[in-house]
Amino acid sequence: MAPMLMIRRLPLLRVSTLLLFLLLRFDAFPAAYASGHDYFDALRKSILFFEGQRSGRLPPDQRLHWRRDSALHDGASAGVDLTGGYYDAGDNVKFGFPMAFTMTLLSWSIIDFGRTMGSELPNVVKAVRWGTDYLLKATSIPGLVFVQVGDPYSDHNCWERPEDMDTLRTAYSIDRAHPGSDVAGETAAALAAASIVFRSRDPVYSRLLLNRAVRVFAFANRYRGAYSDSLSRAVCPFYCDVNGYQDELLWGAVWLHKASRRREYREYIMRNEVVLHAGDTINEFGWDNKHAGINVLISKEVLMGRADYFQSFKNNADGFICSVLPGISHPQVQYSPGGLIFKAGGSNMQHVTSLSFLLLAYSNYLNHARKTVPCGEFSASPALLRQLAKRQVDYILGDNPIRMSYMVGYGDRYPRRIHHRASSLPSVQAHPEHIACKEGSRYYLSPDPNPNVLVGAVVGGPNVSDAFPDSRPFFQESEPTTYINAPLVGLLGYFSAHP
Questions:
Q1: Residue 464: inside a domain
Q2: Which domain of life is it from (predicted)?
Q3: What residue spans of 225-281 are helical by DSSP H?
Q4: Res 15: pLDDT
Q5: pLDDT given for residue 239 in this prediction
Q6: Is 9 part of any domain?
Q7: Separation CA 46–CA 485 (nearest Å)
Q8: Dist. CA 269–CA 249, nearest whole Å
Q9: Which residues, in sequence order, are CB contacts of 478 under 8 Å at separation 6+?
Q10: Beta carbons of 180 and 252 less than 8 angstroms apart
């Protein structure tokens, strides 16, 4: 069992000495099974996964050939075109909240780490555009945002290929009388972040994204409320907002400030910074909680010396870093015996990749500013944060007690029975006949490996004891999601150039 780091009782150490101590202790157990990794190959595969999650009419350059067109009439019941976008996980519903967060994180990955992605950068940009094209459709009517397509209860009652779907494709929306500031705020953030990605690549498209982000944010801010209250039966318990919508509004404003540099968003951020003073959410970052991400993103402005008025966010970001360091971590953050970040709740890898992304991003910001993070008597250097993030990536790729890669298709040993309808059912090419709702159950319950390899999918991962059941019914461990992969794309992009 890996020793936990007990550094509070150490005498005051220089940064370099503390770094050496932390790395020696933190890597003591993993060193026994560590191996070199092809981060660029993992990057390529992590992006390919998004092609397996596509909904709508697939493009000619589709590379996962066992997938076919699906959900070609989405939105028809509401008189709009809502084809395209992504299925969030192993089901066939298009949930707008996690999809928008996925696009925000993919865009942030490109903004910070795109220069190290080499020949895979165009594929990441395509992945973003596939999502933002859909978000533009979902926000095309002023005062209305479509936030979900597909009835989750009928969908989860079936085990069907997306190509065979005959469940309800209800289009759910928010409006002035039925607000959803959380999902609308996240959608605004996604559109604003993507506008930066396309600023030089496609200026016309970039302006469209930014203008739409401005409009959607204004709607989210003016008509306030949680979409869980407006659409509780459709979105709960699947993607119910339990954290409140204030952080999404601030998150949207931060990205709009970054994309537009407009004074109104800077003032909005400063007026609403009190949202981030809740100590129990300091180390949260994901589709439902933007606290740590907001602090890290704004801190870049402070570290570059051009926004001292955001100093409180920098202080919060430092607190986040200290809260996740092994040995002095917050009670809500644990480490498994093999060294994996673990937080209570399902699909733990979403926490691993998102928190690791923030560690790496902040490491780069600190490095450029020649700064460290004060954690009580100690200081955490950029190199330490980078190493902690790399350890999480290496664990995912196979440096763990059971020597399993949690990325499908990477390495010799990876999950073969993932909780994913399209992957677990025979493809249309192999089985052209329709497979009805309950006819798919025998594939769900089969002990056989999935017939279609969803290359690049990262599953929910092992439990706190590093144990993993490679079994479809254990969905919290065996289901992949787009928001697990999105921050991992940035991490792999960086480590492919800095192994």
A1: yes
A2: Eukaryota
A3: 227-230, 232-235, 246-260, 263-271
A4: 39
A5: 95
A6: no
A7: 6
A8: 9
A9: 415, 417, 418, 419, 459, 460, 469, 470, 471, 472
A10: no
Tokens of 443: 């594939």
> Are the beta carbons of 423 and 452 closer than 8 angstroms?
yes
Q: Can you say whether residue 248 is alpha, beta or left, with left for phi > 0 and alpha for psi between -120 and 50 degrees?
A: alpha
Q: Of how many residues is the chain composed?
A: 499
Is there a domain that residue 59 lies in?
yes
Instruction: Name the one residue in this structure whose structure tokens are 């085990």.
Output: 159
Alpha-helical (H) ranges within 327-469 are 349-369, 382-397, 421-424, 441-445
Q: Which residue out of 51, 284, 318, 479 is catalytically annotated?
A: 479
pLDDT of residue 412: 95
Q: What letter represents residue 374's amino acid?
A: P
191/483 Cα distance (integer angstroms): 16
What single DSSP character describes residue 88?
-
Domain region containing 258 = 15-497
Per-residue model confidence (pLDDT) at position 441: 96
Q: What is the mean pLDDT of the chain?
A: 91
User: How many domains does one find in the chain?
Assistant: 1
Give catalytic status of residue 479 as yes or no: yes
- pLDDT score for 305: 83
Catalytic residue among 51, 91, 163, 318: 91
Q: Which ranges of the chain have pLDDT less than 50?
A: 1-32
The answer to whether residues 300 and 347 touch, using CB atoms and an 8 Å cutoff, is: no
Q: Decide if 2 is inside a domain.
A: no
Convert the pLDDT of each residue in 105-155 to its tens digit.
Answer: 999 999 999 999 999 999 999 999 999 999 999 999 999 999 999 999 999
Q: In whole angstroms, what is the distance from residue 422 CA to residue 52 CA?
A: 8
Catalytic residue at 156? no
**Residue whose entry in the numeric block shows the structure tokens 């498209």:** 205
Kindly report the CATH number assigned to the domain that includes residue 394.
1.50.10.10
Give the pLDDT confidence of 212-255 residue by residue, as tens digits.
999 999 999 999 999 999 999 999 999 999 889 999 999 999 99
SS3 at position 167: coil
pTM score, whole prediction? 0.93
DSSP characters for 72-105?
TTTTGGGTS----SB--SSSS-EEHHHHHHHHHH
From the list 37, 257, 291, 419, the catalytic residue is 419
Radius of gyration of the chain (CA): 22
In this prediction, residue 376 carries a pLDDT of: 86
Q: Which residues contact 105 (CB under 8 A, 6 or more apart)?
A: 354, 357, 483, 486, 487, 490
- Could you tell me which of 173, 290, 288, 289 has the C-alpha nearest to residue 230? 173
91 is catalytic: yes
